[in-house]
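S.,

Sequence below, as promised.
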Amino acid sequence: MFTIENANLTVVISPEGAALQSIFNKDLKREYMWSGDAAFWGKKSPILFPIVGTLKEDTYYFGGKAYQLGRHGFARDMVFTLIAQTGSTIGLRLKSNEDTLAKYPFDFRFDIRYELIQNSVKVTYSVSNSGKSPMYFSVGGHPAFKVPLEEGLAYNDYYLEFNHQEHAGRWPISKEGLIETVPVELLNNTDRLALTKELFQKDALVFKGLSSNSVTLKSDRDVHGLSVDFTGFPYLGIWAAKNADFVCIEPWCGIADSVGTDQQLEKKEGIHVLQPAKNFERSWSVTVF
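The prediction came back faster than expected:
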């Protein structure tokens, strides 16, 4: 495990999947990340690369050939290499190899940087095309935060507050993990989404093109909470495992296949195209209070 810290926070990152393990506020003596209880969901903050969500039949086609990739891709299960570390920053790297090329035929370098800025953790994804042809990919985050944050409170005491009024439906997920064709009304000219465990009985809430670029986890019975800024991420997932005490707030540059997909990678919704020797970068951040 790697640890970075500043005057406010101590943050732990695992080399496996370059995943956040802990955000601990020193002043408040408060942990904000989910415990990772395997009885519900054993992960804490997997990185989604080179796809986000599920492929139809776990298969995509590129250059006339079929390739298999499991849900959210392979980065979350691979060990990243340390490339730089200071007291309050760390950089980790994953590079293409024989194993990745067998299921994803692109040479790449994928760097993740964590930087502490006062009470915030800034997470930057940097994707580089080290091959000789265009590269197709998606990337996203999947951090899970404790709910409730305060002893004595209940899950239903918390809500998510968007920084703009929203009129947006959730895009349902089929039993195969694919995005349905018609959204279901959920946010009706409001900036608030009450948290209940029933909310996630039909998998994640998936949003496209929200007006907001940040969302805050808060409670009217607790002065403490956290905000996730997802500027530059066109999709947002919100999810929790059945009956678990957490909520995932997931900034996505990419989305699962639609039920009507032809499985061609170049035409996949949310896919990004990166030319040789070019770099793609996006950052999201979580601020705790």
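The mean pLDDT is 97.

Coffee later?
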